[in-house]
Write a sequence for this structure.
């Protein structure tokens, strides 16, 4: 028992690694996650619109892209994209950071595209028919009416996907990072290897919980508000003005 406590709960080592975790480690993880989520949302929206198109030559590439990047493990995708970019010797992609963001954006775009597609398809078809009756084109109906309603319905799933992106950012160490570029996991891993103790990794896990637990509660809050907002208004016992007999009681 003492060996277990020493290996995981060495508070001196945890105190030594926390400053690095809470300064540039946390910052780098958030930069990777937020940037990848934003780019992935753009890719996902394009994929969702392509997937809902009536033209097969738009649907087919979207389907292939989604199946490919959802089917490959995240670590393999990061390695393939990283090695491909580095071997191509792209001048403006010499740092691992842009390559990691590119790989994570491509992956998250496939998942976010399916989230957007399900949200758009959940909007009643009568909304589109009403838009056409008002003289709006199909593109205007999607942009102004259907897509905003669909995105609102999938907000909890989007926050869940952002949590997954935060955790997947721990895999970018495969690309090789200098000291100032290390994210949370790499800092904990390096300190654990240096000290031969797993307490730095425990501190890393606590930092991930610091990010993901509030987001999880945010998901529950958003979901609860959306469900409460969709409930019909409760019936009242007040007499109806249309029924004179009830008004006289």
């Amino acid at each position: 028992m003492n060996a277990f406590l020493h290996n995981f709960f060495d508070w001196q080592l945890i105190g030594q690694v926390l400053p690095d975790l809470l300064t540039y480690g946390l910052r780098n993880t958030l930069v990777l996650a937020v940037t990848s989520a934003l780019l992935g949302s753009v890719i996902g929206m394009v994929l969702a619109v392509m997937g809902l198109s009536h033209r097969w030559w738009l649907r087919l590439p979207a389907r292939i892209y989604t199946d490919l990047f959802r089917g490959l493990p995240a670590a393999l995708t990061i390695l393939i994209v990283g090695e491909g970019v580095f071997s191509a010797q792209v001048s403006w992609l010499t740092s691992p950071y842009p390559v990691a963001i590119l790989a994570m954006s491509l992956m998250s775009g496939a998942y976010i595209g399916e989230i957007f597609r399900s949200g758009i398809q959940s909007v009643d078809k009568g909304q589109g028919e009403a838009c056409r009756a008002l003289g709006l084109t199909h593109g205007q109906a999607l942009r102004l009416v259907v897509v905003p309603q669909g995105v609102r319905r999938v907000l909890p799933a989007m926050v869940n996907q952002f949590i997954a992106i935060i955790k997947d950012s721990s895999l970018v160490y495969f690309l090789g990072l200098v000291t100032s570029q290390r994210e949370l996991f790499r800092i904990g891993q390096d300190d654990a290897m240096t000290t031969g103790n797993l307490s730095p990794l425990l501190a890393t896990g606590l930092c991930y919980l610091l990010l993901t637990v509030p987001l999880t509660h945010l998901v529950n809050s958003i979901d609860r508000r959306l469900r409460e907002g969709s409930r019909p208004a409760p019936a009242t016992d007040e007499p109806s003005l249309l029924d004179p007999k009830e008004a006289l009681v």
The chain has a mean pLDDT of 85. The two ends are 76 Å apart (CA to CA). The first helix runs from residue 2 to 8.
